[in-house]
Amino acid sequence: MVVGTDRFEALARSIAASLGAPWLPVVTVEHPVGGISERQVLEKIDAVEERLVAALDGEDHETS
User: Which of 23, 25, 35, 50 could form a disulfide with 55 if both were Cys (CB 3.0 to 4.6 A apart)?
Assistant: First the structure.
């Protein structure tokens, strides 16, 4: 699985495909993740928690 910000989703998918893993789950969070408060980080985690678990369980390969 790849976890990154929405700004880099296309790059993550392109690299995964170029390495022979176009099925690799990509979970994105809203950009940015640096230079933000702890509260904002926790909010971003809450927003993607279910998608992360689903991707880890192999339930959904289109997880953005």
Answer: 25
Tens digits of residue pLDDT in 20-42: 999 999 999 999 999 999 999 99
pTM above 0.85, yes or no: no
Q: Going by DSSP bridges, is the β-strand pair 2-5/26-29 parallel, antiparallel, or unpaired?
A: parallel
Nearest to 51 by CA among 28, 23, 22, 20: 28
- Map out the domains of the chain as residue ranges: 2-56
Q: Where do we find the tokens 């392109």? A: 14
Cβ neighbour number for residue 29 with a 10 Å cutoff: 19
